[in-house]
């Protein structure tokens, strides 16, 4: 199970552990109970998380968590919202995008002030400005946010970036998440009351204006957000010209099963072979992951030679009984059987030896051998980032767009232990496997796959909801 499936697992957990505390945001919780939650977080992460210390020293996380513990212990009580806002940025110091910290209040990521969300949809354009692309206040559309309630947008963005769970130091991932749910994140981590919002704006010529906006509820925000992306949400093949094929892989997960996905790939590449395509565009923008075996299946259809996909898969514990605080955790049913395939390597690290992406793999019969262009962005994450890392290592094509959303050197993901913290009712998802792609030395630790041709949508692209991928689609480039 990878990134796109953890939310479903957490929804199941809500039912499985329905007896956990369901605290209101403003309710004050006793410090002794909150300290117990923090101690559970510390013990569970140290025992289980395979990526602790992978991208930066583990002490950065541990010292920060201990500092929060001291602050909480020094008070009589703390509200759920304050606790959430203090602990969330500490968990981001794990530098793991698959670690998730969920509030019990509402659906992800609408936790607080869900009846008073800022009524805007925003996107970063190629200038780096935060552009309003939709709003219940039409006069705001096409303008850049410069302040909210007197706070400069740069300060707001710094605060939100510190709250985003990302692999390593992948800036594109943080910004992709921020623009995806800006109003929800603002409510979760910055907003202080029900509003209204005083939003300062600037147009292209830097002419300034200010609008007082009344907040809207979650459903109204989601309705406003509908249709905000030009990207297709389903996998499909098209032919922009006789010599160009465009393969849209929106997800590595199929509700109809892995066999359905594989049949789609077989059919697509048969059609590509019959058309004698010279350039294949593989569009994985916005693809947050799915089943990791399907990333390897896609690469086998474009591989030029035998290849390795995963170098190794690490875990921290072998037996179910080694999992701390098991009574508060949801664990996959098969975790007990996994121990049969876990062995120590020469350095004493535990490795899972049964993953189907390990070993030597062969190109598919009639694999595509022509030119490949990969379209990627900050949401090209998890399985998608692994696929892109292997393709980069194999020098398989041209990479266009933004830095991939996952780290080039791999991630911690797979299956999860999901804890219900007793005092707060917060859910903490801890990945149990560390994935290491079979790649060479990374150019910069903790970064994603960097583009050969960097592109971001222009203001006009965003306002007209147009796809700016002309570099990839033009065979003459």
UniProtKB/TrEMBL annotation:
Record field: compositional bias (Polar residues): 461-477
MF terms (GO), sorted A to Z: serine-type peptidase activity
Superkingdom of the organism of origin: Bacteria
UniProt record, GO biological process: proteolysis
InterPro entries: ClpP/crotonase-like_dom_sf, Tail-specific_protease
Residue segments, region Disordered: 446-477
Listed Pfam families: Peptidase_S41
Domain Tail specific protease intervals: 244-454
SUPFAM superfamilies in alphabetical order: ClpP/crotonase
Stated name of the protein: Peptidase family S41
Natural source organism: Dyadobacter soli
């Amino acid at each position: 199970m990878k990134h796109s499936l953890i939310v479903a697992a957490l929804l199941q957990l809500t039912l499985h552990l329905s007896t956990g505390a369901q605290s209101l945001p403003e309710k004050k919780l006793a410090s002794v109970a909150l300290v117990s939650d923090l101690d559970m977080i510390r013990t569970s992460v140290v025992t289980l998380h395979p990526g602790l210390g992978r991208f930066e020293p583990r002490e950065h996380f541990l010292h920060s968590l201990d500092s929060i513990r001291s602050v909480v212990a020094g008070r009589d009580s703390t509200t759920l919202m304050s606790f959430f806002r203090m602990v969330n940025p500490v968990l981001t110091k794990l530098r793991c995008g698959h670690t998730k910290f969920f509030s019990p209040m509402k659906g992800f990521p609408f936790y607080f002030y869900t009846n008073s969300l800022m009524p805007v949809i925003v996107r970063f354009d190629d200038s780096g400005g935060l552009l309003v692309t939709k709003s219940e206040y039409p006069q705001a559309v096409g303008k850049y946010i410069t302040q909210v309630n007197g706070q400069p947008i740069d300060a707001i963005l710094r605060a939100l970036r510190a709250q985003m769970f990302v692999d390593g130091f992948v800036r594109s991932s943080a910004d992709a998440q921020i623009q995806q749910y800006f109003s929800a994140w603002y409510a979760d981590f910055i907003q202080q009351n029900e509003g209204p919002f005083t939003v300062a704006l600037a147009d292209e010529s830097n002419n300034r204006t200010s609008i007082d906006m009344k907040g809207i509820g979650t459903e109204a925000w989601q309705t406003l957000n509908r249709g905000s992306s030009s990207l297709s949400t389903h996998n499909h093949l098209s032919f922009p010209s006789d010599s160009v094929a465009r393969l849209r892989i929106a997800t590595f997960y199929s509700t109809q099963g892995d066999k359905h996905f594989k049949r789609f790939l077989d059919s697509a590449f048969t059609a590509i072979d019959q058309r004698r395509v010279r350039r294949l565009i593989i569009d994985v923008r916005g693809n947050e992951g799915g089943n990791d075996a399907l990333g390897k299946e896609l690469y086998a259809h474009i591989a030029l030679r035998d290849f390795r996909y995963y170098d190794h898969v690490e875990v921290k514990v072998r037996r179910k009984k080694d999992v701390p605080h098991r009574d508060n955790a949801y664990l996959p049913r098969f975790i007990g059987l996994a121990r049969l395939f876990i062995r120590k390597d020469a350095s004493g690290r535990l490795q899972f030896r049964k993953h189907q992406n390990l070993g030597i793999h062969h190109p598919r019969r009639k694999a595509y051998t022509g030119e490949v262009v990969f379209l990627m962005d900050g949401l090209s994450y998890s399985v998608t980032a692994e696929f892109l890392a292997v393709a980069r290592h194999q020098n398989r094509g041209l990479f266009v767009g933004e830095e991939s959303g996952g780290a080039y050197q791999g991630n911690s993901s797979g299956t999860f232990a999901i804890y219900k913290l007793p005092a707060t009712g917060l859910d903490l998802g801890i990945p149990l496997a560390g994935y290491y792609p079979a790649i060479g030395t990374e150019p910069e630790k903790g970064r994603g796959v960097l583009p050969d041709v960097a592109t971001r949508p222009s203001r006009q692209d965003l306002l007209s909801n147009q796809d700016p991928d002309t570099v990839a689609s033009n065979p003459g480039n």
